[in-house]
Write a structure and sequence with these properties.
Largest sheet of chain A: 6 strands, mixed
Number of strands of chain B: 12
Order of helices and strands of chain A: EEEHEEHEHHHHHEHEHEEHH
Radius of gyration of chain A: 19 Å
Number of helices of chain A: 11
CATH architecture of chain A: 3-Layer(aba) Sandwich
Oligomer: heterodimer
Number of helices of chain B: 11
Strand content of chain A: 25-35%
Structural class of chain A: alpha/beta
Structural class of chain B: alpha/beta
Largest interface: A-B, 38 and 40 residues
Low-confidence stretches of chain A: none
CATH class of chain A: Alpha Beta
CATH topology of chain A: Rossmann fold
Amino acid sequence: MSTAPLLQIRGLGVYYATAHGAVDAVNDLDLDLGAGECLGLVGESGSGKTAVLLAIMGLLSSQARLRGNIRYRGTELLGLGAPALNALRGARIAMVFQDPMSALNPYLRVIDQLSEVSRVHGGSSRRAAEQRALEMLESVQIGEPERRARQYPHQLSGGMRQRVMIAMALMAEPEIVLADEPTTALDVTVQAQILSLLQQVRARTGAALLLVTHDLGVVAQLADRVGVMRAGRLLELADCERLFASPRHAYTQTLLAALPKLELPA
Amino acid sequence: MSTYDASMLLEVRNLRVSFPVRHAGRSVRVRALDDVGFALASAETLGIVGESGSGKSTLARTLLRLNEPEHGQVRFRGLDLLSLNGTELQRARARLQMIFQDGIAALDPRQRIGATLEEPLQVLKPELSEDARRERVLTVLARVGLEPQHLQRYPHQLSGGQAQRIGIARALIVEPELIVCDEPLSSLDVSIKAQITALLLELKRELRLSLIFIAHDLPAVQLLSDRVLVLYLGRVMEIAARDALFQRPRHPYTRALLQAVPVPDPRIARQRRAPPLAGEIPSSLSPPSGCVFRTRCPHAIERCALELPVLRQLGDSQVACHRAEEL
């Protein structure tokens, strides 16, 4: 099929064996991500939304049991060996984590973490990789990129660290960017900056974005389609405008009703 | 010193708080709050907003004497809170309570909820009999929507929402005149956040509570507050009645904060209004000269770097901006 989605998830289950029996984090999930699309996945704590991203990246703990299929351009990702997975991760599929302070290596300068991506995935020379890293820092609108590049993560503010994470995800020009609550740890003003940056990145690179968040305000701004998850299940999947205008599932209606809206002059 | 308005529950003037830090090998003081002043009437809720690092939590903690200010006055029903010590301070604390951000961390992990709720009564209302104490615990517990069975639990057996309800119950139990809420919603999920907001709103109306409500969440602040104070880098940018602030923000920082709130409606969210506020809050170690907001302000002029804007009345608002009239 020529119209196959970039990423196809079928019957995905993520289970943990515990002393009290099996606990499912994700249950029988079907999801497609098209090329260049932004799909928002929303849900509260424990809904399984992050587990979906970790399953795609092969980053679940070894205790997790998996079922179903995750296909990227027809290649089955579940059960794929480390060498093949490593060739895809960070290169074709990249991830932006919620807490950049713990996701970045505290011992490496910004430029070293970024250029590592190009050296590993592109086989670039050190010089070319560092050049690319500086370009990426500039493209995510980090002021004084040359100076920032030589700093360590703890020397950057939260917003700047998240820009570095996004730059790192984009280093190898991935087709898919997975973002796990990319603005949750940030102030509203910085959140607005990062959302606007993600919008520009999509327009510029054409990468597909799978955006996991608990914040319906965030998906309203970015997503083409939205999936609503609760207790490991996908309850509703719809075009973004349709979901907000006429939510069909009772839980989606509850979530939307629970959102206090700012009353502002028109 | 000028006279205090006896009709006010709380009056804060010229509050300055600083902390010693080591910077570049030297011991310096970093100023967390500077010249902060406001008044709170009885049964009123004052919302306090601002980014991380603006001094919101320092302000909350200073009002309860968990930090000592360097300078300033805090009058609580005419009582000079900053001069109190020992028993007097403890007695005053029965009238002022606090609700913390992380509901579970704010509870003693080794104490059952029942004991946690009784303790403030034992300490602050020793005249109550054991029966009266139990009775009061059960009443307050029901008031925050929990069941007697929860009294037997330990904090780790509670959900985040339940823990926050216990935090509210613990504050209410001594029947305080003022409750300072420091980001009580920020660690909660959307639907739980809505429940706790609704609970606070109910309590405020029914018990005529006076609240200081500190939050990142501007829609919740709009829902709960009668007046709102906007802080930036330790200074007051604007104070106004709720509707005046949200309908007609006078300070460029207030405006930027309001515009940054994501709108949960794709049709509105996509016609992106003004570009987001650039940059981030500067370090309090080296605040900008003049107006502290000028380095990020789209309207800054030369005067803003030279002269500190004082908080002044403009229409229904108090605003600290040289250009507030023209904007």
